[in-house]
Write a structure and sequence with these properties.
Helix content: 40-55%
Distance between the termini: 89 Å
Strand content: 15-25%
Number of strands: 13
Number of helices: 17
Shape: elongated
Oligomer: single chain
């Protein structure tokens, strides 16, 4: 005998289990009267805020007291299965479990003491996951009793319905959440997940937490990320003020801020990134617009092209490759003149991806071969091969004279090609 096919239905704050009883043996098994069956849950909570999980067991419930459901037979044949009464455990109290607690004896006999309840299930379980096991006890007059347990079922617990929360319960939820942002990177990331699932309902609490001196380090960065992920005018306004803060907060705003799609915040990010001497902030702003908006504002691209930092120019090359506009092609061609080979590599790859075979593009690639740097030369030759169909590869492991021959071949070919097109 086994309890199987345990599923859950969680609607309007309810936690409903739909178990089934199956006879997996070969012989017919007698059942107790439905009114005598006793059930309870064993749970392990895994909070999303990264705190240590806790074990609980529920108070016992009586399936026979639930109206409706399938007919409960006196016996179950081999291979037979019946649906047990579906039960809502939301209001059932949970008790903390620790080694040595004899809850099984208590639930079977109804005697003995167990720890005081921590609260009802709907109040005790926090946002995250919970592993649930359904237990069923069936006493039988003419046979030994049966104690059955299901496999553990993992259930996702979402944020509560804030409209129905009492002030005390809402405060407890928020306090637990902000505590996650006060911790390390792991707990901060977990708190971010909880915060974004709760959304605008707790936005004011998140904004208040930005002024909490205990929220610092990685936790603070995850808090700012959560603000960026909850799209709202209030969040955008706070992010606009935070972009100038040190300690990586400004970097987070530069990268995640474009998610807000706020014209005011966009303009502040663009202005800051275009004028800042912080190359990382500029590069992150470029990436943020590219990843979350699909395009980078022209002003930011132009300032990136002129940047003294190769990280920024490399990021610009990747951004320009997304659209084969004349302006973008011109920007990439200018990047081919960079003294930094990783910038030339990025520009060459971007031009190859665009597929623009214009003479200006091909000529700029050939001219870029004069700069030192085996990786960049290899990427430039690959781009030329893609655009022209010619197989003249640059072997980085070849001797210096062999490498020079490859460069010379491309230059001679380009000189002949220009003459033929005059």
């Amino acid at each position: 005998m086994s309890v199987e096919s345990v599923a859950t239905v969680r609607q309007n704050g309810k936690f409903v289990l739909l178990p089934a009883l199956r006879n997996s043996g070969r012989a017919v098994s007698g059942l107790c009267p439905r009114a005598d069956a006793v059930a309870w849950l064993i749970l392990k909570s895994q909070p999303a805020n990264g705190s240590v999980g806790k074990y609980y067991f529920s108070e016992r419930v009586f399936p026979g007291a639930v109206k409706g459901g399938a007919v409960w037979p006196g016996a179950l044949a081999s291979g037979g299965q019946i649906e047990l009464p579906r039960m809502d455990f939301s209001e059932v109290p949970l008790h903390p479990y620790s080694k040595g607690v004899k809850f099984l004896a208590h639930h079977v006999t109804g005697k003995g003491s167990i720890p005081e309840a921590a609260g009802k299930l709907r109040d005790v379980l926090v946002v995250g996951r919970v592993n649930v096991q359904y237990m069923l006890y069936m006493p039988r007059k003419d046979d030994s009793p049966i104690v059955l347990k299901s496999a553990f079922l993992t259930v996702e617990i979402g944020p509560p319905d804030f409209k129905g929360l009492s002030p005390a319960r809402r405060k407890a939820f928020v306090d637990d959440l902000i505590a996650g942002f006060r911790g390390d990177a792991f707990s901060g990331q977990a708190a971010h997940s909880v915060a974004t699932s709760a959304g605008v309902e707790i936005l004011d609490d998140l904004i208040a937490a930005t002024k909490d001196p205990a929220v610092k380090g990685a936790g603070r960065l995850w808090l700012v990320t959560a603000l960026a992920d909850i799209r709202d005018k209030r969040a955008a306004g706070v992010l606009a003020r935070l972009i100038g803060k040190p300690g990586g907060v400004g970097h987070v705003v530069a990268y995640h801020g474009p998610k807000q799609r706020s014209a005011e915040l966009d303009s502040i990010i663009i202005a800051r990134a275009s004028q800042s001497r912080d190359a990382r902030l500029t590069a992150l702003a470029l990436l943020g617009f590219m990843v979350f908006r699909g395009e980078v504002p022209r002003k930011l691209l132009d300032s990136g092209i002129d940047s003294d930092d190769p990280r920024v120019r490399t990021t610009v090359a990747a951004a320009l490759s997304r659209t084969a506009s004349i302006a973008n092609v011109q920007g990439l061609v200018s990047l081919l003149k960079s003294r930094e080979q990783r910038v030339r590599s990025a520009a060459a790859k971007a031009l190859a991806a665009m597929g623009n075979r214009h003479a200006i593009v091909v000529g700029a690639l050939v001219e870029a071969l004069v700069f030192e740097g085996d990786q960049a030369r290899s990427d430039v030759c690959d781009a030329l091969g893609t655009l022209t169909g010619r197989e003249i590869r640059y072997d980085q492991s070849a001797r210096a004279d062999e490498k020079l021959k490859i460069i010379t071949k491309w230059r001679k070919w380009w000189t002949a090609a220009r003459k033929n097109h005059r």
